[in-house]
Each structure stands twice: as structure tokens, then as C-alpha cells.
Amino acid sequence: MITIKKVKTKKDLKAFVKFPFSLNKDSKYWVPPIISQEIKTFDTKENPIFKDAEATLFLAYKDHKIVGRIAAIINWLEVNDQNLKKMRFGWFDFIDDLEVSKALLNEVYKIGIAHNLEYTEGPVGFSNLDKVGVMTSGFNNTGNMVAWYNQDYYINHYKAHGFTTEKKYEENIFPFANVKPEMFSKAQELIKKRYQLKALKFTKTEEVMPYADKMFDLFNETYKDLSSFVKITDIQKEYFKKKFLSFINPEYIKFVVDKNDALVAFAIVMPRFAETLQEIKGKLFPTGFLKILKAKKHSKDVMFYLIGVHQDYQNKGVHAIIFNEYYNTFTEKGIKMCYRTAELADNEAIRRIWKNMDPKVYATRETLSKTI
User: Fold this and answer.
1) What is the pLDDT of residues 235-251, one digit of tens each?
2) What is 175-364's CATH number, 3.40.630.30, 3.50.50.60, 3.40.50.300, 3.40.50.1820?
3) Type and span of the H or E element at 70
4) How, if at all, do strands 360-371 and 301-309 pair?
5) pLDDT at position 224
6) Of 148, 170, 312, 354, which residue is least crowded by CB atoms under 10 Å?
7) pTM of the model
């Protein structure tokens, strides 16, 4: 018999966060999250997303043992401002038992129906800066810290419960050796002169801060036309600065500004912490934090996290300036492999930007939807 329990206490929340640790204990490809960060994600006092969203967490039990979890999410900015009658869900993990996944999804449906919502989509987070998608290939490749990892049976559960594909995503990889400066070095000089642009270089995190809000504004502008996009609010900007910037080398943040110092493009690259996160098993203390700092400084693999170009400068080759800056930085640091986080599979503009690097798809994922 499957029993569903709503997460109400700190003990429940910790069990919710730690369930994937037991589920994936035998996987050498799963990358654990940082436990304290995951707990803060669902802290209504800590995470400002809860000013515009709500989440109800559930655990599934079988024979008095936790066998699944799910977060039922409503983003009210999406529902009210965009008039999307959508119920979100994420953090959806379960043993290979259809009754378990069905019972968890039923809790999502109930909440959606109670709020007069029309369909549900997942797995997704609260916003576009959260993890997205169930893996459909790449199960034998090591995951990363900004994406969910799952076993190959997950997608079968979605299909069995009547879900259909909503969006497809791809994650790509290419050796840094594939990057040839002649692809962009001369072009970026011409583009800088033509449009009176310059690249900003940072060596300290505090140097980035005066531009951070502008970056989030440009992020909102760049991605506003994508389906399921929900803008980052002012109060969320402060939260994301604290959450992400400490993990990013300031040298890996690239901004391009015009003659008036207005931001026209940005890119964020992170060290790939996968192996370190596997080693510390979700715990920052007593030594995990130091190991992350070491990886931040010495990792030879990097992950392209975000890139955005102002609509007035799109299709004008501005990305060549960014690539040139990263080429110089990565050469200096001896970078070996470059990973790209999940991107919409039908985003042809992104494909064109990266095609000369000869990237290979190493994982695919989907979000799926169902009328409720």
C-alpha cells in the first residue's frame, strides 16, 4: 500500500531533500545537490520566489519506507500575468513502481484542480533558473549540479500516466581544443569598432556586483519570448546573487557594454563541480566547502550556464566578442572540456552560434504535460 504524506516539519523537509541520496546510492553518474542549499530552496523566509509562488511537498511511503517525492508548484506570475492555467511540478523522484509515481502525481492534480488550473507540466522548478526536464538519454554520463539526474525508467512512468512531450532539451559537450581563435578573433575586433563596444574583465566578485542587476534585466529581456519563461523579479535578483555568484570565478563572467556603459551581452560559465560534489556527498562541512573552493580554482572542465544578447544586437556577431574573451581566459587556465547546460532542442540560433566548436549531444531531456 502506498501512503502519501505532506511535508510539514523540518525533519520531513530533510527527508524530502535526502531521498535521492538513497535512491541513487549505487549510481556513479548521479551528482548530489548541496543539502543545505536544497533546504533553503524550500524555505519560505529564505527564498523570495515564495512571494509570487507556492509549493507543496509530498513524500510517498511503502512499507514505512520513503519511495518517492514530488513538489507541486504554482507560479502566480505565470498564472495571473501570463494567463497560463498551469500547475508545475518538480523534484519528482520515485522507485520503479507505477503506483508510487501515480499517487504522487495525483496530489499535483488535486491542487491544480482546486485552483482551477487546466494542465500540469514538469519536471520544472519555480523559474527558468531552476533545473528542468527528465532525462531521456545520457544515463551513463556524469550529471552536473544544475540539472536533475534520473534512471532510464522515469520517462516510462510519464508515458504510462498519460503525459505527452511538451519541450525537448539537449546538453552538449566539446573539447576546448576544438575552439580555434580564427573563428572569431578578427570578427570581434571589427564588431567592437563598428558598434563601439567593449568587453569587461573581472578579477573580483565585488567588481561584478554593479552590473549584476543589469545582467538579470537583460536576462529577462533576452528570454521573455521563450515558452514558460517567468521573469526574475527585483527581490529574486538578490537571492540569485547570493546563491550563484559564490560558485563562479569572476574571470568566468563576461559582459559586453556599449559606449554609454549599457550592458548589451553577458555570459556566465561555471567550473564543473560534478566530481567534487560526488566526493562531498552534499555536505559543505567539515571539509566540503574547502574542496569546492579548490575545484573552483583548479577545475579543468567548465560549464556554460547562461548567455544573453540584447535584442538590438542579436544577429550582429556580438557572441564573437564573448568567445574571444573566454578563449583567452580558458587558454590561461588550461581548460580541457566545455559543457553546455540544457538548451531547447529547436533553438536554431543557439545551434548556429556553437556549430564551429563541433559539439556533441551527451544528454537529452524533456518536460511533459497533461490536462488535469
Assistant:
1) 898 888 877 777 799 99
2) 3.40.630.30
3) strand 65-75
4) unpaired
5) 83
6) 312
7) 0.95
Beta bridge partners of 260: none
pLDDT at 171: 98
Q: Which CATH architecture has domain 2-170?
A: 3-Layer(aba) Sandwich (3.40)
Given a contact cutoff of 8 angstroms between Cβ atoms, the answer to whether 292 and 300 are in contact is no
Give me the amino acid identity at 368.
Answer: L
Same fold, 2-170 and 175-364: yes
Q: Report whether the peptide linkage leading into residue 48 is cis, meaning its omega lies within 30 degrees of zero.
A: no
From CA 232, how far away is CA 229, in angstroms rounded? 9
pLDDT digits (tens, 9 = 90+) for 307-325: 999 999 999 999 999 999 9
Domains of the chain, by residue range, sit at: 2-170, 175-364
Spatial CA neighbour of 221 closest among 212, 232, 234: 232
- Taking the chain, what is the end-to-end CA distance rounded to the nearest angstrom? 24
Instruction: pLDDT band for 129, please (50, 70, 90 cuts).
Output: confident
Contact 24, 152 (CB under 8 A): no
